[in-house]
Amino acid sequence: MAKGLLIVLSGPSGVGKGTVCNELRARMPKLVYSVSATTRHPRLGEENGVNYFFKSREQFMEMIEKDQLLEYAEYVGNYYGTPRDFVEETLESGRDIILEIEVQGALKVKEKFPEGVFVFLLPPSLDELKDRIQGRGTENQATIDHRMSVAADEMRLLEQYDYAVVNDEIDHACRRIEAIITAEHCKVRKPADI
Ligand SMILES: Nc1nc2c(ncn2[C@@H]2O[C@H](COP(=O)(O)OP(=O)(O)O)[C@@H](O)[C@H]2O)c(=O)[nH]1
Ligand SMILES: Nc1ncnc2c1ncn2[C@@H]1O[C@H](COP(=O)(O)OP(=O)(O)O)[C@@H](O)[C@H]1O
């Protein structure tokens, strides 16, 4: 059986990765979502095992030592990582999986899965990005400033991705990503790619 597609959706904080990913999951019920582990505290309404697996620093370090993470990254003072087994089992079973992760982690996944589909979500402008992070109201000003300075560096990594999608409107961004997934399924795989 053909393996599933590994789709990595990345881009700067606040660009709308979470929002677009949720909408895609609603539109593509067969698309499997990888739930990450993190040392960040849960936000109001977030559930363990649904949004993230919330871990202590010690538990996270243990996952690293046991090689249970496909990749991990430290981002604005917290660790985030992708549980490996779930991704590999999903792909083996022929289902597509989407990882919504920040850019350093995405590039580590690319080293291990060069055949993955790497999608970079762009804001319509940096001003709009700041408005979105502020508008979400989940971070204090210092964290917002830190995330904005990280965002400028993150944008430079765009050229290492396969696709750039501007998140102007959620519906438009989702349609573009759906089109990318459809196209990837239609792609003729050369023996060297398999
Ligand atoms: N490398 C990596 N990044 C992750 C993972 N899970 C989430 N992230 C990213 O970590 C960053 C911070 O996530 P979070 O604190 O939930 O804030 P938000 O996504 O900006 O609302 C975001 O860019 C996420 O996409 C993961 O497993 N690995
Ligand atoms: N296309 C869009 N137009 C306007 N606002 C958006 C759009 N996409 C996301 N947002 C808003 O921007 C904020 C950041 O989105 P979020 O999905 O949390 O970003 P990320 O996961 O990349 O950090 C949220 O308040 C969200 O509602």
UniProtKB/TrEMBL annotation:
<keyword id="KW-0808">Transferase</keyword>
<dbReference type="InterPro" id="IPR027417">
    <property type="entry name" value="P-loop_NTPase"/>
</dbReference>
<dbReference type="GO" id="GO:0005524">
    <property type="term" value="F:ATP binding"/>
</dbReference>
<dbReference type="InterPro" id="IPR008145">
    <property type="entry name" value="GK/Ca_channel_bsu"/>
</dbReference>
<keyword id="KW-0067">ATP-binding</keyword>
<dbReference type="GO" id="GO:0004385">
    <property type="term" value="F:GMP kinase activity"/>
</dbReference>
<dbReference type="GO" id="GO:0005829">
    <property type="term" value="C:cytosol"/>
</dbReference>
<keyword id="KW-0418">Kinase</keyword>
<dbReference type="InterPro" id="IPR017665">
    <property type="entry name" value="Guanylate_kinase"/>
</dbReference>
<comment type="similarity">
    <text>Belongs to the guanylate kinase family.</text>
</comment>
<keyword id="KW-0547">Nucleotide-binding</keyword>
<dbReference type="InterPro" id="IPR008144">
    <property type="entry name" value="Guanylate_kin-like_dom"/>
</dbReference>
<feature type="domain" description="Guanylate kinase-like">
    <location>
        <begin position="4"/>
        <end position="182"/>
    </location>
</feature>
<dbReference type="InterPro" id="IPR020590">
    <property type="entry name" value="Guanylate_kinase_CS"/>
</dbReference>
<feature type="binding site">
    <location>
        <begin position="11"/>
        <end position="18"/>
    </location>
    <ligand>
        <name>ATP</name>
    </ligand>
</feature>
<keyword id="KW-0963">Cytoplasm</keyword>
<comment type="function">
    <text>Essential for recycling GMP and indirectly, cGMP.</text>
</comment>
<protein>
    <recommendedName>
        <fullName>Guanylate kinase</fullName>
        <ecNumber>2.7.4.8</ecNumber>
    </recommendedName>
</protein>
<dbReference type="Pfam" id="PF00625">
    <property type="entry name" value="Guanylate_kin"/>
</dbReference>
